[in-house]
Amino acid sequence: MKPSVREFTNDQELINAVNELSSQGFDKDNLYVMAHDSDREDRLADQSDANEVGLKELGLGSAVKNLFSSEGDQLRTKLEELGFSEMEAEQYERKLDDGKVLLIVCDDDGKSSGYMSNDSMDSQEPYM
User: Fold this and answer.
1) Dist. CA 56–CA 23, nearest whole Å
2) N or C terminus of the chain with fewer C-beta within 10 Å?
3) Paired residues of 102 in beta bridges
4) pTM score, two decimals?
5) Which residues have a Cβ under 8 Å from the Cβ of 37 and sit 6 or more positions away?
6) pLDDT attached to residue 116
7) Phi and psi dihedrals of 119, rounded to 5?
8) How many CB atoms lie within 10 A of CB 116?
9) pLDDT of res. 15
């Protein structure tokens, strides 16, 4: 199943969303934070107790390739390794370029389909 994504411009809203997902029974092992700024990503992952895409998700080959890639290429590779198409990865990487932060839910039991959408969800509508 393709991961679900929610975009944020406000760091505290992302942290609140991770906490809400966790309280609804989502395993934090399936929640990933991604930002263009690695310091921001580290800080948000620590504060929300969510994950960053790392060696476990990338595999050794992609991780080594990323050592010699630009930041944008690294982000697109991470997104593709999580299950997004090349075109989707490019679109999300552009959103990261614009300062957005992504909360990605990788959930193979289908729970996330009613909670989050693969579309932009910057609005403050209540969760399902």
Assistant:
1) 25
2) C
3) 7, 34
4) 0.75
5) none
6) 53
7) -90, 165
8) 22
9) 96
Place of tokens 């080959």: 61
DSSP strand pairing (4-8 vs 101-105)? antiparallel
pLDDT at position 81, please? 83
Q: Which position has the higher pLDDT, 101 or 72?
A: 101
Whether 6 contacts 103, CB under 8 Å? yes
Query: For residues 40 and 101, is the Cβ–Cβ distance under 8 A?
Result: yes
Q: Rg of the Cα trace of the chain?
A: 14
Give the list of residues 6+ apart from residue 116 with CB closer than 8 angstroms, or none.
4, 5, 6, 103, 105
**3-state secondary structure (DSSP) of residue 83:** coil
Q: Please give the helix or strand (H or E) that residue 23 lies within, else none.
A: helix 11-23
* Helix (H) / strand (E) containing 51: none
> Is 60 exceeded by the pLDDT of residue 120?
no
Tens digit of each residue's pLDDT (9 = 90 or more) over 74-108: 788 888 888 899 999 999 999 999 999 999 998 64
Identify the H or E element spanning 28.
none
Token digits of residue 72: 């944008």
